[in-house]
Amino acid sequence: MFKVLVSDPISDMGIQQLMDAQDISVDKKPGLSEDELVAIIGQYDALLVRSQTRVTERVMEAGKQLKVVGRAGVGVDNIDLEAATQRGIIVINAPDGNTITTCEHTFAMMMAVARHIPQAYLKTVGGVWDRKSFVGVELRNKVLGVLGMGRIGSEVAKRAKAFGMEIMGYDPFLTEERAEKMGIKLSSVEDIVRNADFMTVHTPLTPETRHMIGKAQFEIMKPGMRIVNCARGGIIDEYALVEAVDQGIVAGAAFDVFEVEPPTEDHPFLKHPKIIVTPHLGASTVEAQENVAIDVSEQVLHILRNEPFRNAVNMPPIPADVLNKLQPYFSLGERLGSFIAQLTEGAVEEITVSYSGDVADVDTQPLTRHIVKGILSHHLGSEQVNLVNSMHLAKQRGLNIVTQKSNAAKGFTNLLSVTLRTKKEERLVAGTLLNGYGARIVQIDKFPVDVAPEGNLILVSHNDKPGIIGRVGTLLGSNDVNIATMQVGRKIVGGAAIMVLTVDKGVPKNVLTDFAQLPDINNAKEIILF
Ligand SMILES: NC(=O)c1ccc[n+]([C@@H]2O[C@H](COP(=O)([O-])OP(=O)(O)OC[C@H]3O[C@@H](n4cnc5c(N)ncnc54)[C@H](O)[C@@H]3O)[C@@H](O)[C@H]2O)c1
Ligand SMILES: O=C(O)[C@H](O)COP(=O)(O)O
Fold first, then answer.
1. 99-277 adopts what CATH topology?
2. Are 226 and 252 within 8 A, CB to CB?
3. What is the pTM of this model?
4. Which residue puts its alpha carbon closest to atom 8 of ligand 1?
5. pLDDT tens for each residue of 59-106
6. Ligand 1 within 6 A of CB of 282
7. Is residue 50 in contact with ligand 2, taking CB distance under 6 Å?
8. For a substitution probing ligand 1, which of 52, 101, 202, 296 has the most ligand atoms within 8 Å of its CB?
């Protein structure tokens, strides 16, 4: 039974599918402090949050069983991603479910600031009929600058056109071609600041975007600018903004987000007549909350059940065409990694992965992750290593990972070959998928073989002499170990050779030592592949 903790208010529509699952139990405990969360997180396999819960390194460290942190929403700045990755905890988000809702809130804020809606409402309900103080401006024929043309920024730009606005957009990934297709003007931050009438930000908060609109930008800003921030507090320098409003540079501002949330009572926005605020409501609609809750719960379920999932934040996404090509090789890759790690003695220094055939045409990094996971699991324990942290752990340990690619696959459609160099030796294993036969190991060191990579294997290194097979059979038979398959490989007659046996159960250690006592046998190693 997997245990899931929900520590923020998340729509029941999504949680329901977790509650309905036979293998999941769900506890809802919104509003926990960090200490309270640390005290209980150790018993949970998954944690579901929105933006309130701070999933710090302490929380990750205490989450000994934690496999996944699911964010019902986009921003993951409340989650320590580095701490999660180090511990192999997958962080996923629900990036699509609140796009339209947040875009619509941006418009609500833009129109509210253009027409002084909150200020006029307050006066009217206070009994004052004041029509003079609240003369606004139209959106039509105004220039809107959009900083961050991702999901939300693009939707904002689309809708702004319906209002008759001209749009200037900036995003490091926005190409001239895409801007043209969207009917917007590709611009720099400075262009926007100097020329726009309205400006809205839709970037994440990163070291680069922090205070991207600050004192220097306000100094060159077109007077009368109106600014909206429904993305993240801190993208616009709050104190520099207040100054710019007071100096008459900025005509009005609408903020849904703050550098510190909730803001302190004396925050300068809260009583400012030209700044309107909402309490981080961008994603707060029934529809968006259902969307993100359903999405994140579905993915958490997949992760807990070891099924394919999407939207991992601390793992690069795999495009569908790459996944189609690589997925059949994932299990083989992991087994080859495990095989070579069990075969090789000494501290690992370098892993060389060679891809031949048409797998070499795509980005093979996702498959390398599986191979490295297989190798490290043997040394660090399979509990410690997973696809999220395998490359990270390898890097942390200073392992050099070399990838080679070639289109010639030596008679196979595709060939994966893994060489492990340790302080003591260098060994190689290669495998492929054979039509109708499945995964096969086809080479061990310099010897061609044909072995299914599964179960209990014994690798015997010997001299190619008559009688070896009989001696091996007798030794195993007398120790009640049944041989299922046997393969012998050699390069030249009478030279060095290997034998790979598949046996029906684990081999006692003393039997492996006895092998080396037999004439012409150098050593025997047991390799277990699950
Ligand atoms: N107020 C809310 O409740 C609410 C709701 C949803 C999302 N958000 C926030 O809105 C923001 C945008 O969300 P999204 O779903 O559109 O994300 P997204 O990832 O689709 O888009 C973000 C865009 O910002 C761009 N970007 C990154 N650095 C930039 C820079 N220095 N200058 C310009 N652009 C830059 C990226 O290239 C990307 O295209 C995020 O910060 C998200 O957390 C807030
Ligand atoms: O990044 C997001 O998805 C928004 O900021 C929404 O945050 P919330 O889930 O706390 O409303």
1. Rossmann fold (3.40.50)
2. yes
3. 0.79
4. 231
5. 999 999 999 999 999 999 999 998 998 898 999 999 999 999 999 999
6. yes
7. yes
8. 202
Measured distance CA(320)–CA(526) in Å, rounded: 38
Residue with tokens 């492996």: 512
The response to whether residue 152 sits with its C-beta less than 6 Å from ligand 1 reads yes
Per DSSP, the chain holds a count of helices (H) and strands (E) of: 17, 22
What CATH number is given for 2-95+287-304 in this structure? 3.40.50.720
> Is the CB of residue 32 less than 8 Å from the CB of residue 9?
no
Distance from the alpha carbon of residue 137 to the mean position of ligand 2, in angstroms: 30
- Which residues on neighbouring strands pair with residue 335, listed in sequence order? none
CA-to-CA distance for 60 and 41, rounded, in angstroms? 8
Q: In a mutational test of the pocket of ligand 1, which residue from 91, 171, 182 has the highest number of ligand atoms less than 8 Å from its CB?
A: 171
Residues catalogued as catalytic: 232, 261, 280
Q: Determine which residue's CA is closest to atom 7 belonging to ligand 2.
A: 51
* Residue listed under structure tokens 């394919």: 308
Q: Enter the ipTM.
A: 0.99
Give the domain ranges of the chain.
2-95+287-304, 99-277
Q: What is the pLDDT of residues 321-340, one digit of tens each?
A: 998 999 999 999 999 999 99
Q: Assess whether the region 2-95+287-304 and the region 99-277 belong to the same CATH fold.
A: yes
Cα angle value 209/210/213 (rounded, 5°):
80
Give the span between the Cα atoms of 14 and 45, in whole angstroms. 18
Q: Which residues contact 236 (CB under 8 A, 6 or more apart)?
A: 201, 211, 212, 213, 214, 227, 229, 255
CB 312 within 8 Å of CB 90: yes
